[in-house]
Amino acid sequence: MSQSETAFRPGPVSQTLLTLSRRTPLGRGAFRKIMARGVRALNPDRPLDVSLYGGMARLHHSGNNSEVKALLSPKRYAREEYAFCRDHMPSHDGVFLDIGGNAGVFSLFVASLMQSGTLICAEPQPNMFERLKINFSLNPDLSERLSLHLNQTAVGGNEPGSLTISVPDSAGQASARLVEDAPTLSVPVIPMLDLLKQSGVSRLDLLKIDVEGFEDGILFPFFEIAETALFPKAIVMEACHSGRWERDCEALLLEHGYKIVHKDRTNMMLILDEAK
Questions:
Q1: CA angle 11-101-75, nearest 5°?
Q2: Average pLDDT, integer, range 183-189
Q3: Is the sign of the CA dihedral 182, 32, 68, 89 positive or negative?
Q4: The CATH number, out of the four listed (3.40.30.10, 3.40.50.1220, 3.90.1150.10, 3.40.50.150), of the domain defined by the range 79-272
Q5: Residue 174 in contact with residue 214, Cβ under 8 Å?
Q6: Which of 184, 186, 187, 226 lies 20 to 30 Å from 91, alpha-carbon distance?
Q7: Beta bridge partners of 51
Q8: Residue boundaries of the structural domains of the chain
Q9: pTM for the structure as a whole
């Protein structure tokens, strides 16, 4: 095995900490924070290659909440959302769209449910998109069984162009709803409908959308012009930043035939009532 292939492998002590965190109650609450500090101290300048959802991922141990949780306690991460995906993502010939792909953790989980089909992922931040690409490259079998469309772009609006986003210190918190005093970045943007069309799909089985309060800037333009056949059959949507919405996404989805099957302080999950 080459040096490049082993450069991010956890050492014996790091591996012990990760095993304890992943397989025992030490991966919960305050104990997880202690484990995280230990892993960071042992690996101050590098991410770690670890097993994840039947494959591999290169995960950073600080600065990005989704990576930290997937690194230290993947079985406890997004349990409600993952259970929903298991129920609603077809294993064969399904279509999944991940808007706000981050480092690809959520997409890697959904990919593990798919034997065939199309996976589309959009992430605008260059550094996060690079992490996402690396994580998919560590799992070459995915490109053998799935049609993968990894896009370095924001999603929203009615026309392709550019969009200014806020990029706070936490890597997973970038948003087109500008945050005071946060650095900004200009990124490409494409409407959701255009993204689906360029990916060559005629339906959407599952949508995950997590864009830190810009969900309305994506969903309203889409539902204004999309044919019913392209409506997502199931949606996982972050709602903890709904105070940033300029228009009510929950009301929009209910008006278009969706019903909420789960809602908590962070996310909501909806399914399309196709009988309506």
A1: 50
A2: 90
A3: negative
A4: 3.40.50.150
A5: no
A6: 226
A7: 56
A8: 3-72, 79-272
A9: 0.93
pLDDT over threshold 60, residue 4: no
pLDDT of 3 > 60? The answer is no
Decide if pLDDT at 174 tops 90. no
